[in-house]
Write a structure and sequence with these properties.
about 150 residues; mainly beta; 6-stranded antiparallel β-sheet; 4-stranded antiparallel β-sheet; globular
Length: about 150
């Protein structure tokens, strides 16, 4: 009986997958870019999606089929409010939150905008790492090196 329960417990755990999320919050959780990945069961490949959201107007999910490994990083650039350029290796995407759209560029864009952050995989999990200065941060004062 104990062996049967142990085998049942192992089978139940083997069927459990995982879901991970990382978000760039543009204006709170209602206006965001979220990278999510799901694993149906332990050991299976990850399904990665980008969710572009601006509630209540729109929310759309886009499969990122080429992003299945833990070595992926996605740089996020802002070209203008609500418009972002994403780069992962040789792949470039444009997304905008007014209509929650995403398109892949055929060629590298000439000027992707300001780098504001990066989605990356670290220690087996996904995270968003901001490159922006915190709100209200004061830029460093100029130095007077070399002046009498």
């Amino acid at each position: 009986m104990k062996i049967g329960l142990a085998l049942l417990s192992i089978l139940a755990l083997a069927g459990c997958g995982d879901t991970q999320h990382a978000a760039y919050l543009i204006a709170g959780p209602q206006h965001s870019l979220t990278l999510t990945r799901q694993q149906a069961f332990i050991g299976s490949e990850w399904d990665t999606e980008l969710i572009v959201a601006r509630f209540p107007e729109c929310q759309r999910r886009y499969p990122m089929k080429e992003m299945v490994t833990d070595a992926v990083k996605i740089d996020v650039f802002r070209t203008e409010p609500g418009v972002f350029i994403l780069n992962s290796g040789k792949r470039w995407y444009v997304t905008e939150t007014r209509g929650c759209r995403l398109e892949q560029f055929k060629d590298t864009p000439p000027a992707p905008g300001d780098l504001i952050g990066r989605f990356q995989f670290r220690d087996g999990t996904i995270e968003y790492k901001s490159q922006e200065a915190p709100a209200g941060a004061v830029p460093p004062a100029p130095t007077s090196a070399g002046k009498p």
